[in-house]
Amino acid sequence: MILGEITDLAKITTGNELLNEAIRWVANHYKDKFEKGTLLLNDEGSLKVNREEVAMLPQGKQMLEVHRKFIDIHVPLSEEETIGWASTQRLRNITKEYDDENDIMFFGDEPQSYITVKPGQCVIFFPEDAHAPNIGVGLHRKYCVKIVID
Question: I need a labelling partner for 23 at 20 to 30 A (CA). Which of 14, 15, 32, 113 fits?
Answer without folding.
Answer: 113
